[in-house]
Amino acid sequence: MVETKEKVIAVRNLQKSYKGHKVLKNINFSVEKGSIFALLGSNGAGKTTTIKILSTLLNANSGSAVINGFNVMKEPEKVRGVISLTGQYAAVDEGLTGRENIRMIGKLRHLPKANKEADKLLDRVQLLDAADKHVSTYSGGMRRRLDLAMSLLGNPSVIFLDEPTTGLDPQSRLSLWQMIKELAEAGTTVFLTTQYLEEADHLADYIAILNQGEIVAEGTSQDLKKLLPEGHIELGFNQEREVRAAFDVLHDFHPTIHPENRKLVITTDGSIKQMTNMLNRLEQAGISVSQLTQKQPTLEDVFLTIIGEKEGA
After folding, report:
1. How many structural domains does the chain have?
2. Which of 1, 25, 77, 306 is deepest in the core (most CB within 10 A)?
3. Do 170 and 253 fall within a single domain?
4. What is d(CA 34, CA 156) in angstroms, rounded to the nearest whole number?
5. Is residue 54 helix, strand or coil?
6. What is the CATH number of the domain that holds 107?
7. Whether 55 and 170 share a structural domain
8. Quick one: 56 and 28 in the same domain?
9. pLDDT per position as a tens digit, 5-45
10. pLDDT (tens digit, 9 = 90+) per residue, 132-180?
11. Domain of 211, in residue numbers
12. For 247-275, b where at least 16 C-beta lie within 10 A, e where not — what string?
């Protein structure tokens, strides 16, 4: 018997328009408990609008959204009691210390144990050593981690992260990725929007691609990559004349030539038969291949292909 996981978020036929312009067009998706769900899309696709509706900051025109059994439109106060939101920009007070920021949020949310929880949260996001320093002295990564710690006050069961790593350096981004993974492992449901395809590929259990207000593809990262059955190979050569000769021999495979690094890139179906055919041709022509690399479609390949097809590119 297959175990069915609990759906913490269920969105059905959600619509939102601004001055006659449809931002969301009957979108549908669900999110499992304790999972990381990534909503991908270009600027203006409707990602932030979706998060604002689910976090009760914006009303939908029609459709329904349920979080932890509470109707977002009809029971917003109950929804706010089980969720937390970290927006695109760190919402911290630079004039306060890290510890004071957390305590302030605790008072605003009327949490009796906020003072005791402050140090635990600061330690959790690796900021305990900087707890009594003013936030104005924090780096971008430190501010983002403090913002996340503030969002974790009260142990929300669902946390929304709207492009949480935008503007962070690679080290800070990796640190935040690890924290997001740990949140999900502890049972928190994470709803993530991002423009970084590798971020979704690395973190998300399930991905939905939003384009011009519509969900155009969804599934696990591996499921989405299977939408592009073709990969590509890179053939490297020692001399530029060999690249030109190989291009002529394999012209019917429609190769792309990169003379600056003496490579040919060829889209393939991944079959051994096709690969053997190409290598045999080169051998018969007396052309030596110095390097062969086979690459499968990436999530970025899938995203750009799907978006391009929908926009007629």
Report:
1. 2
2. 306
3. no
4. 12
5. helix
6. 3.40.50.300
7. yes
8. yes
9. 789 999 999 999 988 889 999 999 999 999 999 999 988 88
10. 999 999 998 899 889 988 888 888 999 999 988 888 888 888 888 998 9
11. 7-225
12. bebbeebebeeeeeebbbebeeeeeeeeb
Tell me, yes or no, whether 150 and 236 share the same domain.
no
d(CA 253, CA 280): 14
Amino acid letter, 278? M
Can you give the C-alpha Rg of the chain in angstroms? 24
pTM: 0.80
Distance of CA 98 to the CA centre of its chain: 27
Question: SS3 sequence, 78-142?
Answer: HHHCCEEEECCCCCCCCCCEHHHHHHHHHHHCCCCCHHHHHHHHHHHCCCHHHCCCEHHHCCHHH
Nearest 5°: phi and psi at 36? -110, 115
Residue 88: inside a domain: yes
Structure tokens at 137: 């002295």
Chain centroid offset of residue 249 CA: 41
Residues 90 and 183 in one domain: yes
Q: Are residues 159 and 113 in the same domain?
A: yes
Q: How far apart are CA 275 and CA 98, in angstroms?
A: 58
3-state helix, strand, coil in the chain (%, to 5): 40, 25, 35
Domain-embedded: residue 311 = no
97 shares a domain with 197: yes
What's the CA gap between 41 and 193, in Å, rounded? Answer: 8
Q: Using CB atoms within 10 Å of the CB of residue 2, give its burial: 0 to 12 exposed, 13 to 18 middle, 19+ buried.
A: exposed
Separation in Å, CA 42 to CA 119, 159, 200, 209, 308: 38, 22, 14, 9, 11
State the sign of the Cα–Cα–Cα–Cα dihedral 42, 47, 49, 52: negative
